[in-house]
Write a structure and sequence with these properties.
Helix content is 39%, strand content 10%. Strands 1-2 form a two-stranded antiparallel ribbon. It has a domain at 13-76. The chain is built from two helices and two strands. The mean pLDDT is 79. The relative contact order is 0.08. The longest helix has 31 residues, at 42-72. It is an alpha+beta fold. The protein has helices at 42-72, 85-92; strands spanning 13-17, 30-34.
């Protein structure tokens, strides 16, 4: 397999083809051009890949930072529970029966 060199619009590759059926009837030649390669420079490709990598690193770093902050900050998980809820309830509603028996 032979690979073609990259070309620009000012210097395209040309091809032509002619159809011939089984009896030997020939069609007209058809001619066209085509390009190989990209229309933008390689440095732009590398720049876009680098920017995408930087964005991914920032997102992953932010996510890891948030996870580490949650692990260090106990107040996010361990709320101070009031152990005297029943007493305050009886004080506000003295006629409420809170017998656990």
């Amino acid at each position: 397999e032979r690979k073609l060199d990259s070309v620009n619009a000012n210097n395209p590759y040309y091809w032509r083809v002619k159809a011939v059926d089984g009896v030997g009837n020939e069609g007209a030649w058809v001619v066209d051009t085509f390009l190989v390669g990209s229309s933008w420079p390689m440095w732009l490709t590398y720049l876009l890949i680098g920017m995408a990598g930087l964005i991914v690193l920032v997102i992953v770093g932010f996510w890891i930072g948030r996870r580490m902050a949650m692990l260090r900050d106990d107040s996010a998980y361990n709320y101070s529970m009031d152990t005297d809820i029943e007493y305050r309830y009886r004080e506000q509603y003295p006629d409420a029966g809170l017998d656990t028996n």
